[in-house]
Specification:
OB fold (Dihydrolipoamide Acetyltransferase, E2P); Phosphorylase Kinase, domain 1; 3 domains
Length: 352
């Protein structure tokens, strides 16, 4: 393990260990040439070492605001390093699903509009991610995110090869490979059936699966080996009733579920392209208002109440709640608007 103060390639000074994935260790380092912080990644096993330089070349092809930038590649003391921009945020699972079971349709439309743009930029230069999942997406700014970026385009190529080995039968299986276990809920049927011929359409499937998960709180086909036959059959379950029970949210929720269904079509040729997804999201009407956190202060006649927050009391009506109705004392996420008197909240989502 690299220690703080170690200087890599006479340029990158290690500050601290940050995290690790199935293929790599990640450190925060200071670029002594530019005095900025960067993410320094290095392979954690022999399998990853063989492909690390190729992965750096692949990821460097993609340049878009919704994709983490690859800045440098070097070999130091026979060890390889990939330098990426340091993103001051959390992965999408931690940012959007730790405190809430799901997100509302407005926020989901905003999230996946940005992600579709990032994936489209990669596809334009012939780069397929192959391992899109919430932990490979970084969010800056909590629910009112200022940035959202897809990471590990290059590393995902190595992850894909590990998954091929897991599917075809190697030292690890779909249930023992750390990489495969995390990816399975979002894997396209062809990634399981013919893993060596995965193309851009597999990324589209993964976007649809993630959108379904964030919108409903459920994996579209479950987790673990039980998900495999369901993914291969590509028959989506009936979405939970709360998506369509409230007329404030049901039109947009229905449009998003339809897009998710199109993304998760069994035949890859029948799925939309990333550019078509960008167009679909561009034609949706959704709010991009910032989100705040608060606590339900009172709830009168099971119809309306007030939320206390850092900026004062905010009125809300039960028709402004997406999903489970919060109780007095419970925490909520909300956007705030001028209500012609007291500020009014819409949407309101119960937090864990």
């Amino acid at each position: 393990m690299l220690q703080p103060g170690v200087l890599i390639g006479n340029r990158y000074e290690i500050e601290r260990y940050l995290a690790e994935g199935g293929m790599q260790y990640v450190f925060i380092a200071r670029d002594t040439y530019t005095d900025r912080k960067v993410a320094l990644k290095t392979p954690k096993n022999k399998s990853a070492e063989k492909r690390f330089q190729r992965s750096a070349i692949v990821s460097a092809k993609v340049n878009h605001p919704n994709v983490a930038k690859t800045l440098d590649y070097l070999v130091f003391e026979e060890r390889q390093f990939l330098v990426e921009e340091l993103i001051y945020g959390l992965d999408m699972r931690a940012a959007l699903l730790n405190d809430s079971a799901f997100i509302d349709p407005y926020l989901a439309a905003k999230v996946f509009h940005h992600l579709a743009k990032g994936v489209a930029a990669a596809h334009h230069v012939g780069v397929v991610h192959r391992d899109l999942k919430p932990t490979n997406i970084m969010v800056v700014g909590d629910y009112s995110f200022s940035e959202i970026k897809v990471t590990d385009f290059g590393i995902a190529k190595m992850a894909a090869e590990e998954m091929v080995a897991a599917v075809e039968g190697g030292e690890e299986s779909l249930t023992t490979s750390q990489t495969a276990v995390g990816a399975l809920p979002y894997m396209a049927p062809e990634a399981i059936e013919t893993p060596r011929s995965v193309g851009t359409s597999a990324d589209i499937w993964s976007l649809g699966a993630m959108m379904y998960h964030l919108l409903t709180g459920d994996y579209p086909f479950g987790q673990g080996l039980n998900a495999v036959p369901k993914i291969i059959n590509a028959v989506l379950p009936q979405p939970p009733a709360f998506l369509f029970s409230n007329p404030q949210f049901s039109p947009l929720a229905a449009e998003l579920i339809q897009i998710a269904r199109e993304c998760m079509t069994k035949n890859p040729r029948n799925r939309p392209t990333a550019d078509q997804l960008v167009d679909k999201f561009s034609n949706l009407c959704y709010s991009v208002a910032v989100r705040a956190r608060g606590t339900v202060e009172d709830f009168l006649f099971n119809a309306y109440g007030y939320i206390s927050s850092e900026n004062g009391r905010v009125f809300f009506h039960k028709e402004c709640v997406y999903g489970v109705m919060p109780k007095v004392g419970e925490n909520v996420l909300f956007s705030c608007y001028d209500g012609g008197g007291a500020p009014r909240a819409l949407p309101v989502v119960k937090l864990r």
